[in-house]
Each structure stands twice: as structure tokens, then as C-alpha cells.
Amino acid sequence: MIFWAFSFVWFKMANEYFRPVAIVFLRLVFSVALLSSFLAFTKGFVKIRKNDYKLFFLLAFFEPFIYFLGESYGLTHVSATVCSVIISTIPVFAAIAARIMFNEKLNSLNYSGIFLSFLGVVVFVMNKSGMLAYNPQGIALIFLAVFAAVGYNLTLSKLINNYNPVYIVNVQNIIGAVLFLPLFVTMEIKPMMETDITLEMLLPVLLLALFASCGAFVLFAFSVRYLGIVKANVFTNCIPVLTAIFAFMLLGDKLTVQNLTGMIVVILGLFMSQYKSKV
After folding, report:
1. 126 has which bridge partners?
2. What are 198-252's pLDDT values in tens digits?
3. Cα separations (Å) of 75 from 79, 108, 162, 167, 194?
4. Phi, psi dihedral angles at 133 (to 5 degrees)
5. Rounded CA gap, 74 and 95, in Å?
6. CA 268 to CA 273: how far, in whole Å?
7. Which string of DSSP letters, residue by residue, matches the chain?
């Protein structure tokens, strides 16, 4: 969660030099190189079962493809802190999806938490006049990423017990890079060729590849294996707090009393939405 919290800040830094599709494609290419090298060294490559091909494609379609499109373009319209708060509603929608897909029942406290978390998001993004303080298009794009993440979680739960988490993440990033390739070729190659790229410009992209696309996804996959989807997702509640701190320190983002209040309400609601009665 620390890596993912930092990823919002690193993206903002990378976005000063590269456009969203270029950032995502480059971080995927770098991450595939890193993970493939690790798997080759540890002899971790395995044969994918025939019935799982569609699951791996669906996994990559949700995340990184749809998720990164929503998050990356959303971050061009809203701050890193606002983005992280909306992203932290993933456990809420995961609980709803689990109810629909797996008939997992929610208690009254869970439903109260869902309502409270939405209230917290509203408090966070509204200004004193009761209007949206941030670009509605950006917020909609971030919520697209949220729904993609829920699909990713449900698909991952069907693969995690049969494959090594490092292998799963590598395959999803390979497919993701292939999906992004046409967008990169048609939209980004010309602007990049006209730019004198330096190591300083690539550094935030490399950090995204190493710590977010590799480290965070692999660690999360291991967590899902040992804790399960619900318990692992609870930890995403830490992201908005961490991102707000990092963005304040590194990007100069401002934190108001209203922002802090909204963050607290969101996090409280998220924990309530995950509570399971012992009865």
C-alpha cells in the first residue's frame, strides 16, 4: 500500500514529461523486463492451463488496461490525494460484487459503512458552496478505475491458488503491454521522438515499474493468497492517508480540515463495510 500510495505522486512527476498512455506503456515494458528476468533466473515460468487463458486475458483487461486508462487520465484532472481517496472505495464495491457474484451477505453495519464511505468522498470533493471542487470528468475516470479493480479482484481470486503471484503479475503485464501497444504507437511515438529523453525524466516511470507494477501487485497477490480478497482489500484504506502525506511532502498539495474530515469518514466507512458479525 505504501508503494501504491507513492505511485500517485510518481505519476504526477512523470506526467510533467510524458502523457498518460506513454507512462503506462513504458512502466509495463520495464516491469515485464524485471519480472521476466526474475522468473527466468528462478525457473518460475509454467504452462498456463487451457481453461485459464480467458481468465488471464480478463485479468489484464481489467488491470492494467481499463484501470490504468481510468486512473492515468483521471490524474490529469484531479490531485493525487483526491484520486487516492476515490480509489480507496474499491473495498466497498468489492463487497457489493461479492454479494452479487458469490452471494456473500452483508449486514446492516456493512451497508451503513458503504453509505458512510460515499458520504466521506462527497465531503472530500465538495467545496464550501456545495459544488464539486474537482473536475467531474476526472472523478468519473477514477471511478472507472475502481470498477476495473473490482473485476480484477474477482478474477484474481480464481487464479491465485493455481499460479505463483509473480508469474500472474508478469503475464497480466505482458498482456497489458500488448493491449496498450496500439495506443502507444498511434498516440505517443511521435511526441516522444520529438523529446530529448533524460534519466531524470525516466526516473519516476522506472519507480512506477519497480515498486508499483512489480512490487505492489506481487505483494498484493501474495496477500490475497494468504488473507483472501476481503481482508487484503481492507488495507487499501491506508492509501489515501499515505498519499495525502506524500503529496503534501513532495508535491506541495494542500490539506484542509474538510479534506481531513472526508478522509476520516471514508476510512471509517470502509472498515464498517468490511466488518463481519461473529453471530
Report:
1. 132
2. 999 999 999 999 999 999 999 999 988 887 777 777 777 777 777 777 777 777 7
3. 6, 34, 34, 29, 24
4. -85, -5
5. 24
6. 9
7. -HHHHHHHHHHHHHTTTS-HHHHHHHHHHHHHHHHHHHHHHHT---PPPGGGHHHHHHHHIIIIIIHHHHHHHHHTTS-HHHHHHHHTTHHHHHHHHHHHHH-----HHHHHHHHHHHHHHHHHHB-TTSSBSS-HHHHHHHHHHHHHHHHHHHHHTTTTTTS-HHHHHHHHHHHHHHHHHHHHHHHTHHHHHTS---HHHHHHHHHIIIIIIIIIHHHHHHHHHHH-HHHHHHGGGHHHHHHHHHHHHHT-----HHHHHHHHHHHHHHHHHH-----
- Which parts of the chain sit beneath pLDDT 70? 81, 104-106, 125, 127-134, 274, 276-279
Cβ neighbours of residue 101 closer than 8 Å, sequence gap 6 or more: 154
CA atoms within 13 A on the CB side of 36: 10
One-letter identity of residue 39: L
Closest to 18 measured CA to CA, from 243, 216, 174, 204? 204
